Amino acid sequence: MREGIGHQFQLETKYQREPYSPGALERQKKRERLKEKLVDRVIPLPAPDRENGWPLFRAMNTRRSVREYQKKPVSLEALSQVLWAAAGVTLKAGDFLLRTAPSAGALYPVDIYVFAREVVGLAPGLYHFVPANQSLRQRYEGDFSELLADAALNQDFLAEASFVLVFTAVFERTTWKYGARGFRYIYLDAGHVAQNASLAAVSLGLGSCPVAAFFDDEINSLLGVNPARESAIYLLAVGWPRP
Ligand SMILES: Cc1cc2nc3c(=O)[nH]c(=O)nc-3n(C[C@H](O)[C@H](O)[C@H](O)COP(=O)(O)O)c2cc1C
């Protein structure tokens, strides 16, 4: 881990299991097994709707954290719409690709990964959202849902959601300019991104629940990121709400 108060903050606020906690070895083996199926495939997403949808105030008034989901797949269009709302490009301004959510210095430190479980036309697996061309890059194939829920302090609804977004922070994108203060900005950025996603979800009839309680190292290990550079900071479960 890099030095500095921001990185120290990350380190000291991590949730961690006790060393040698029960099931640790089994968990690690499951993770390794899933990670054997490495893929590198680009999946273009359907063009998002930039005009229509629910009125904003209705979406705000209706949004609730939903923790019970139906076993029903979500369309690729809906996933694309939620990702676009979270971090889609809305304007090219010189060298900058400005997005739906504001970002300190337009540096966009928050990346989005998708653990897809039930999305029409997407194999279950881990995907990385590429805002510049509204596409996904598949990383791994397999059902990560049990490991994901387990890594989030056994919040089982994460294994029932149709997909789970993981918001990561790529620290250096913001700290090269703002130093340690950049850590404040990164978390503010993530709030904007996640709120946009949850309002888009509700306006598509979907339910979502933000989750910040998780074992950082385990989610990072599922993602395959180096936490000195990039770390999971927030999750969002999405699926059809149970009536
Ligand atoms: C930063 C943050 C972290 C949260 N983490 C969790 C979580 O780990 N698990 C969970 O079930 N809900 C989590 N929530 C959802 C809150 O419990 C929920 O927003 C709150 O109870 C208000 O309900 P509402 O979202 O339906 O308005 C989190 C919310 C925020 C903003």
From TrEMBL:
Sequence ranges assigned to domain Nitroreductase in this UniProt record: 62-240
Matching NCBIfam families: antibiot_sagB
Lineage: superkingdom: Bacteria
Designated name of the protein: Nitroreductase domain-containing protein
Alphabetized GO MF terms: oxidoreductase activity
SUPFAM superfamilies cross-referenced by the UniProt entry: FMN-dependent nitroreductase-like (SSF55469)
Organism: Candidatus Saccharicenans subterraneus
Organism taxonomic ancestry: Bacteria, Candidatus Aminicenantota, Candidatus Aminicenantia, Candidatus Aminicenantales, Candidatus Saccharicenantaceae
